[in-house]
């Protein structure tokens, strides 16, 4: 994502990747033929950011998206926000194929990502110093390393991914 | 023969009521009367009119469905804006005389918080700088009006957003008190070694000061835009300017607290005292202004629906690490009924 790597963007990428794998199996996903429902409000937490990643990857866009040429290539309103929870502990997202109606529900549990409490606490402490330009050089490097450690754990190692990212088929 | 105009404001929104009533009062000639009909007990309006000492106010009917006020102008309309301008130029002059302070006190007692906000706004539009309003008027306003403003306050309870903001203010003020005490001790020290545990205490104080950013963000991103949509623009602008000044100094204090190893003690001491004294005084004064003027204006003009929207937005934006949990709890409709 233009050089940006953070747990939120990483999570969004993985959600999208796993959702499309389940939806399309051996077929190639078709851009613009997927609708997505995000079970959260646009301006709530990081749902908006996740939505932007989904748009980038699938073409499904909110109201501001491309209205299409005639009846083709429409992207607008393929991504919607529904501010309701399917489950209190999970961030949920429905991905649906427009060609055959097949749908899956992706549930993301960021609190279950196995990043130690001590490291998370240290990250928070360093983040404050970074924001207020008070981190020494060593602390800046420490922050960068901890930050990327979490991203690597999610994206590359996929440590315990079955616990914090679950994909279920949705029956109509 | 005096003609009596009747203004019936029953069923109107707050702003519409004011737009009907106040211009008519301003236009009222000496000796003339005005009748106002409302569907609730107009205690604040009666209080305001009596305080202006230009009107004779009596109540022809006192509920339960309607109140009818008879208002007769008994004295020439005072030019509130002209009075304020004159006061401002006297306050600019440096030392403020007892006479000016009394004049300021009399002036501020005759107008409510919203009117003050409106007058400040008008002055700024006419070219008086924000800085001048902030420094001269606000500070003296506070000094002479402290008791009277607190007395007139509309009180709200949890989980109203204003209540949350004010509870956070109390904690911030507590922190400022600690900062003040620390600065006092620092003045007596001549080395880091002598500073002892105050070095760590300063980090903790600085942390809480920067944590208050969530509080300022809720004001700047949620409450102030609500007021600006109601054409109350200048008081929020002044508060935003204050926030910027505080941000710069909080950042400097935070950096000093966490990087004192790199700073000679004499320099550290000088800078911490300067920053600490500024924040302790100015932030405390700012808090008083918000509690007793800005929030009061907001409570007067925003509707219940708007406050519900403010609360929802505040919940989404989040609170400070020190915000008491019980004040932010949303009361469900079921619990309310």
What are the main properties of this structure?
heterodimer; A: 172 residues; alpha+beta; Dihydrodipicolinate Reductase, domain 2; 5 helices; B: 337 residues; Translation Initiation Factor IF3; Four Helix Bundle (Hemerythrin (Met), subunit A); 3 domains; four-stranded mixed sheet; elongated
Q: In what range is the share of β-strand residues of chain A?
A: 15-25%
Q: Provide the CATH architecture of the largest domain in chain B.
A: Up-down Bundle
- The CATH superfamily of the largest domain in chain B bears the name nmb1532 protein domain like
Helical coverage of chain A, percent range:
25-40%
Cα separation of the termini of chain B: 53 Å
Number of separate helices of chain B? 15
Are there runs of chain A of 5+ residues with pLDDT below 50, and where? none
The helix fraction of chain B, in percent, is 55-70%
What would you call the structural class of chain A?
alpha+beta
CATH level-3 fold name of the domain at 7-113 and 158-170 in chain A: Dihydrodipicolinate Reductase, domain 2
Give the biggest beta sheet of chain A. Answer: 5 strands, mixed
| String of helices and strands of chain A | HEHEEEHHHE
Strand tally of chain B is 4
Number of helices of chain A: 5
Overall mean pLDDT score of chain A? Answer: 93
Number of domains of chain B: 3
Written account of the structure:
The complex is a heterodimer of chains A (172) and B (337). With 172 residues, chain A is of the alpha+beta class. Chain A has a domain at 7-113 and 158-170: 2-Layer Sandwich (Dihydrodipicolinate Reductase, domain 2). Helix content of chain A is 40%, strand content 16%. Chain A is built from five helices and five strands; from the N terminus they run αβαβββαααβ. Chain A has a five-stranded mixed sheet with strand order 2-1-3-4-5. Chain A is elongated, with a radius of gyration of 18 Å. Chain A starts with 6 loop residues before the first helix and ends with a strand. The mean pLDDT of chain A is 93. Helices cover 68% and strands 8% of the residues of chain B. In chain B, helix 7 packs antiparallel against helix 12 (265-301). Chain B has 15 helices and four strands. Chain B folds into three domains: 4-73, Translation Initiation Factor IF3, CATH 3.30.110.40; 80-152; 161-323, nmb1532 protein domain like (Four Helix Bundle (Hemerythrin (Met), subunit A)), CATH 1.20.120.520. By secondary structure, chain B is α+β, with helices and mostly antiparallel strands. In chain B, strands 1-2-4-3 form a four-stranded mixed sheet, with helices on one face. Mean pLDDT of chain B is 82; it is low at 331-337. Chains A and B meet through helix 3 of A and helix 11 of B.
């Amino acid at each position: 994502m233009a050089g940006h790597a953070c747990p939120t963007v990483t999570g969004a990428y993985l959600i999208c990747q796993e959702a499309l794998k389940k939806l399309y199996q051996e077929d190639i996903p078709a851009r613009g033929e997927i609708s997505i429902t995000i079970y959260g409000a646009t301006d709530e937490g990081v749902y908006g950011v996740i939505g932007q990643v989904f748009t980038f990857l699938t073409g499904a866009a909110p109201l501001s998206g491309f209205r299409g040429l005639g009846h083709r290539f429409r992207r607008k309103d393929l991504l919607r926000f529904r501010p309701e929870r399917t489950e209190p502990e999970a961030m949920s997202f429905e991905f649906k194929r427009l060609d055959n109606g097949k749908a899956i529900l992706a549930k993301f549990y960021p609190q279950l990502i196995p990043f130690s409490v001590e490291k998370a606490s240290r990250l928070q402490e360093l983040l404050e110093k970074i924001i207020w330009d008070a981190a020494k050089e060593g602390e800046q490097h420490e922050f960068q390393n901890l930050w990327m450690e979490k991203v690597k754990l999610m994206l590359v190692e996929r440590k315990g991914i079955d616990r914090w990212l679950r994909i279920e088929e949705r029956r109509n | 023969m005096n003609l009596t105009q009747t203004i019936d404001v029953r069923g109107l929104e707050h702003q519409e009521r004011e737009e009907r009533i106040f211009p008519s009062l301003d236009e009222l000639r000496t000796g003339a009367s005005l009748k106002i009909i409302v569907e609730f007990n107009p205690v604040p309006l009666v209080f305001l009119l009596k305080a202006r000492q230009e009107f004779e106010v009596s109540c022809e009917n006192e509920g339960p469905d309607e109140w009818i006020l008879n208002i007769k102008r008994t004295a020439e309309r005072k030019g509130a804006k002209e009075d304020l301008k004159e006061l401002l130029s006297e306050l600019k002059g440096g030392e403020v005389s007892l006479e000016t302070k009394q004049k300021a006190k009399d002036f501020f007692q005759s107008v409510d918080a919203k009117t003050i906000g409106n007058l400040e706004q008008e002055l700024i539009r006419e070219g008086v700088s924000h800085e001048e309003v902030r420094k001269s008027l606000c500070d003296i306003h506070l000094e002479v009006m402290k008791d009277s403003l607190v007395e007139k306050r509309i009180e709200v309870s949890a989980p109203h957003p204003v209540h949350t903001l004010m509870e956070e203010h109390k904690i911030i003020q507590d922190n400022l008190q600690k900062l003040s005490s620390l600065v006092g001790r620092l003045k007596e020290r001549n080395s880091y070694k002598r500073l002892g545990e105050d070095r760590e205490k300063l980090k903790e104080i600085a942390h809480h000061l920067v944590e208050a950013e969530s509080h300022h963000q809720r004001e700047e991103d949620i409450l102030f835009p609500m007021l600006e949509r109601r054409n109350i623009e200048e008081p929020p602008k002044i508060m935003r300017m204050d926030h910027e000044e505080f941000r710069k100094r909080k950042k400097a204090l935070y950096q000093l607290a966490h990087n004192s190893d790199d700073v000679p003690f004499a320099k550290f001491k000088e800078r911490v005292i300067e920053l600490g004294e500024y924040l302790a005084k100015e932030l405390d004064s700012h808090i008083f202004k918000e509690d007793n003027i800005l929030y009061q204006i907001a409570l007067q003009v925003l509707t219940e629906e708007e406050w519900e929207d403010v609360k929802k937005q505040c919940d989404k934006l989040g609170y400070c690490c020190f915000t008491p949990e019980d004040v932010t709890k949303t009361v469900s409709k079921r619990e309310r009924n």
